[in-house]
Specification:
By secondary structure, this protein is α+β, with helices and mostly antiparallel strands. The protein contains 9 helices and 15 strands. The chain has a 4-stranded mixed β-sheet. Helix 2 packs antiparallel against helix 3. It is elongated. Bound molecules: zinc ion (ZN) (2 copies). One zinc ion binds next to loops.
């Protein structure tokens, strides 16, 4: 590994008279900004390695002395080579250097917000059109009513943790490639709380929380789409140490409706005409979200023809108006004919000519405009 030739004090930005604490502080600051996890600079890794090397030398009295007297030359003569290390995550590295978490946010137990709850509700498309209210049940953790969340049997109190003396953290001296480090870790006996329950509450077995089945009336607004979530604030799992409760996210699933295909706020449906109905014109019954509707189709209605029922689609979610309903005409051709029918069609066929089928718009064009 290439050894840096730059001045170590300069690299750390400290005077030559700096004491161990100043050096450590300077290194900590630089490592935070230079680590490739954090820095976008292309030379971040190189600079980071230089800074680590400088720290390695200046943080140990023997190597620092050697460097102060004889410079880089002296270190090489003294057999010093920088420790090669893996650029792990910044959090790991800081753990190794200082025994703490990323950016010093040590895991002290604190007031924490409760977790969110996910629930699901399934509704019909027609209900999505009008909006609906559903009772949604879900299990949720709540503060134990018996011990008021302390986890201790009523009449008793949690006591100071003997393992950590109530600090919640343990200090441990360890040897690493960088030398001796004091590592502080969360106390395993009390999980960082600093207090332990000797006589646990029977209701919650000392956890301070119990699971309860809760049911909420969930209002599903008109126009909701499949997969959308409704957030109900503050009805989720209880927080710890008085933190606020989490939220409930209710995912709305809309059952497929065999009559309709939804596309945004528009809905599609098809209507079947027989060959003769298409030729002679007919009144057909069309399903809509608001019930059935009579639709008159002119003589000469073509397969693929589209009728738009304005404002018969889904309502606009949290908006005004509704989408459209598009009715696509399908014409059924007879598959089985009696002798008589065949005869009649033969007769008809003899009488028809090109003018009988005079085209206006091609079938394909119509199909395309149905799906624009
Ligand atoms: Zn309890
Ligand atoms: Zn403890």
């Amino acid at each position: 590994m290439a050894t840096s030739q730059r001045d170590y004090y300069e690299l750390l930005g400290v005077p030559r008279s700096a004491d161990a604490a100043e050096i450590k502080k300077a290194f900590r600051g630089l490592a935070r900004t230079l680590h490739p996890d954090v820095s976008e600079a292309p030379d971040a890794e190189e600079r980071f390695r230089e800074v680590v090397e400088a720290y390695e030398v200046l943080s140990k009295p023997e190597t620092r002395q050697l460097y102060d007297r004889y410079g880089h030359e002296g270190l090489r003569g003294g057999g010093f080579t920088p420790t090669s290390f893996d650029l792990g995550s910044l959090a790991d590295l800081f753990g190794a250097f200082f025994g703490d978490d990323l950016f010093g946010t040590a895991a002290r137990p604190r007031r924490a917000r409760g977790a969110d709850v996910a629930a699901q509700v399934e509704i019909e498309l027609a209900e999505a059109a009008t909006g609906t209210t559903r009772q949604v049940p879900f299990p949720v953790t709540v503060t134990c009513a018996t011990c008021a969340g302390s986890g201790a049997k009523p009449g008793t109190q949690p006591v100071t943790c003997a393992t950590c003396g109530g600090r919640g953290r343990l200090q441990q001296v360890s040897r690493t490639v960088f030398g001796e480090f004091v590592r502080s870790q969360t106390c395993p006996a009390c999980a960082g709380v600093g207090r332990v329950v000797e006589d646990p509450c029977l209701e919650c077995e000392g956890s301070g929380r119990t699971v309860e089945e809760r049911t909420l009336d969930v209002q599903v607004p008109p126009g909701i789409h499949d997969g959308q979530q409704i957030r109900i604030s503050g009805e989720g799992h209880a927080g710890s140490l008085g933190g606020r409760s989490g939220d409930v996210y209710v995912e709305v699933r809309i059952k497929p409706d065999p009559r309709f295909v939804r596309e945004g706020n528009d809905i599609f449906c098809t209507v079947d005409l027989t060959m003769t109905e298409a030729a002679l014109g007919a009144t057909v019954t069309v399903p809509t979200l608001d019930g059935e509707l009579e639709l008159e189709l002119d003589p000469g209605t073509q397969p693929g023809e589209l009728r738009v029922l304005r404002g018969r689609g889904m309502p606009v979610l949290q908006g005004f108006g509704r989408g459209d309903q598009r009715v696509l005409v399908n014409v059924r051709v007879p598959r089985r004919l009696t002798e008589e029918q065949r005869h009649l069609l033969d007769e008809f066929s003899r009488s028809e000519g090109p003018e009988t089928y005079e085209a206006d718009e091609g079938f394909f064009q119509k199909l395309k405009s149905a799906f624009r």
